[in-house]
Amino acid sequence: MAEISADNAPKQRVKAARRALPEAWFAWLLVAPAVIFIAVIVAWPLAETVRLSFLEADLGGEEWVGLANYTDLAESRRFHDTVLRTFYWMFLSVGLKLILGLIGATLLNAAIPGRALFRVLVMPPWVIPIAIGCFGWLWLYNGHFGLISGMLQRFGIIDGPFEFLAYKSSAFYSAIVTDVWIGTPMVTLFFLAAMQGVSRDLYEAAWVDGAGRWYRFRRITIPQIMPVIVSMALLSAIWTFNSFEIIWILTQGGPRGATTTLIVDTYKTAIGNYKFGEGAARAVIIVILLAIFSLIYLFFLNKVNRRYGAK
C-alpha cells in the first residue's frame, strides 16, 4: 500500500494544483517551459539582432545610426548581386535535388533484386558529417591529384590539370554539385516514404485499364505525393538558402565572391570584419526574405491540398 501511495503521489499533487489554480493559469503553467525556451533561444537573439541592425557596432562600441545600414545595402550593387546569386544557388540546387530525388525514389520503390541494399547505399552522403564529405570533394576537385581532373586528362577531354575551385563559374557549379550530393538522399527517402503510402489498388486498377508505367507515374504517383513534394521543396529551399558549411569549406565564398551567398556574406561582415551592425542588418534581411518565401509556400501548399484533397 505504501508503494501504491508513493506512485500516486505525483498524480495527487497535479490534481491538487489543478484544483488550487484557475484552469487558464494551470494551462499557462504547463506551457511555460516551452515559452521560456522559445523566448531565450529564439525571441531574444532575434530581438538583439534587430537592435544591432540599427547601430554601428564593432569592437570599439555601439553608435545609433538608424536605417543607415539598410540604406547602404539598398544602394550596394554588390549586395544586390549577392541576393541574386543566393536565389540562383537555391533554385538550381533545390531543383536538382527534387528531380534526382524523385528519380531515385522511383527506382528504389521498384520491385528489383537487392532493393534493400540500394536503400542503404543511398544514405551515406546524408549520414556522414558535412565537413567530411566536403573534404572528400575538395580532393576530387583538386587539379593536380584530384580524381575528376585526372580522369578528364586520361580520356583526353582536357590537356592539363584543371582547378575546379579556382575559377568563378566552375567553383560555383562545383559547390552546387556538392550541395546536391549531400541533400539528395534526404529528398529521396522522403519521396520513397510518400510513394510507399500510395494505395496499390490505384495502380492495379490503372494497369487493368491498360495504363502504361509513364501514365501511372504522371496520373497516380505525382498527384498522390504532390503535398510531400511541395513540403520537401520548402524545407530544402530553407536549408539550401542558409547553407554555410559547404561553401565555406570549399571556397570560403571565392574566387572573387563567385560563391558568396547571403549567409556567407553575413558571416564575413559580422565575424570576419567585426562589423556587427552591418552583419545584423544582413541577417534581418535574410529572415524577411525567408518569411516571404515561406508565406508564398503556404499559399501554394493550400492550393495543392485543395486540388488533391489532402487533409
Compact description:
This protein has 311 residues and is an all-alpha fold.
Task: Offer a few descriptive terms.
globular; 14 helices; 76% helix; 311 residues; MetI-like fold; 2 domains; mainly alpha
Q: Can you give a write-up of this model?
A:
This protein has two domains: 1-52, no CATH class; 66-308, MetI-like (MetI-like fold), CATH 1.10.3720.10. The protein is globular and about 70 Å long. It has helices at 2-20, 23-52, 68-74, 77-109, 115-121, 124-127, 130-141, 147-154, 168-196, 200-208, 213-241, 245-250, 262-272, 276-308. It has 14 helices and no strands. The mean pLDDT is 86. It is mostly helical. Helix 4 runs antiparallel to helix 11 (213-241). The longest helix is centred in the first third of the chain and has 33 residues, at 77-109.
Q: How would you sum up the global shape?
A: globular
Biggest β-sheet: count, sense, barrel?
none
The CATH topology of the largest domain turns out to be MetI-like fold
Q: End-to-end span in angstroms?
A: 49 Å
Which CATH architecture of the largest domain would you pick?
A: Orthogonal Bundle
Category from helices, strands and their pairing = mainly alpha
Number of strands: 0
Task: Walk me through the topology.
Layout: H1 2-20, H2 23-52, H3 68-74, H4 77-109, H5 115-121, H6 124-127, H7 130-141, H8 147-154, H9 168-196, H10 200-208, H11 213-241, H12 245-250, H13 262-272, H14 276-308
Helix pairs in contact: 2-14, 4-9, 4-11, 9-11, 11-14, 13-14
